[in-house]
Amino acid sequence: MLLKIPIEYKNFIINHAKNDVPNEACGIIHCLDGKPSNIYKVTNVADSPYRYEMDGIEQLNLEKKREMSGEQLFAIYHSHVATEAKPSPTDVRMAFFPPGNFDAEPMFDNIFYILVSLENEIPDVKFYSIKKGPEVLEIDVNFE
After folding, report:
1. Most exposed: 7, 59, 106, 138, by fewest CB within 10 Å?
2. 112-117 vs 124-131, strand pairing mode
3. Confidence (pLDDT) at 109
4. Domain residue ranges in the chain
5. Which architecture does CATH list for 2-143?
6. What is the pLDDT of the chain when averaged over all its residues?
């Protein structure tokens, strides 16, 4: 599978991550007909360089906005300030409800998890799919 994503989305995520240092940044991408249509910053209420927790009210408001617009949830993104752009064990565990119930389907099925790493001078952005098991698959992306 090769995804085609506008370069503006990659740049938005990188800039958000850099602006939120020393803490992790997080956000949501919506889509229409399978193509990214809107990207939103969400406050990391954990206020931490080691984990993120999306503000529940902001998430609810984005859910309402998505329902009104007919969009779907496309991706959840967050940054790692000092580690690689790969889901941590905590990231994988939190993809399920209740957290760590790997026998169930993920909380949000058929979405992407985007990680940006600020570990090196040039930020690294990678896309993943997290499935039951857990199975973590890296997805090839073409930024255009």
Report:
1. 7
2. antiparallel
3. 83
4. 2-143
5. 3-Layer(aba) Sandwich (3.40)
6. 96
